[in-house]
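Input chain follows. Return structure tokens only.
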Amino acid sequence: MLLEAKDIWKCYDAPKGKLEVLRGLDFSFERGKIIFVLGRSGAGKSTLLHILGSLDKPSRGTITVDGVDVSRLGERELAYFRNRKIGFLFQFYHLLPEFTLFENVFMPAMMAGRIEQRARAHFLLKVMGLEKRAGHYPSELSGGEQQRSALARALVNEPEIVFCDEPTGNLDEETADDVFKLILDLNKKTGQTFCIVTHEESLVEGRDEVYVLHEGKLRRRK
């Protein structure tokens, strides 16, 4: 398995007692898959994604990614591991406004000292149809162009998994379809693994690997 999560709990202290957002989840998937986690707003999808992607820690449980138990890594080791092994695509892009499109895409590689990935950054912009926009700033791009830029940034370090948090939720229907088709195409052509959380039923229609998050529990949809 590429990722294995065992007995994952996430609890917060609340005025009326402990709030259990995730309650003993077991979850795993293989390399080369597109995994969907479906749930309503507030179900804990983003919390789960952040924990799986090692941006947050569970209250209890273990997560193994590509054979590495991330709970055993120190902060510096974890940051290095996350930079090399994991990509993130968020609903609101999180592009840095003071940097050009190319600089945003290349940033994770530059932070890792992987200057040789400059050519990959240019290649990804071409794949996304954005090579002519490389010198533009995020404010000069459409929503769809910003999301495709964010996807290129997530892929620049050739991660094992890209975690996508509502990747089409901030886009109009036509643009959302284009971004989703691009994800499907990348999976088909390169074998890139994606884990996508969404509340959109239409996005998971006809898909095999669909899980439903409800009341802190995760079940596979039949």
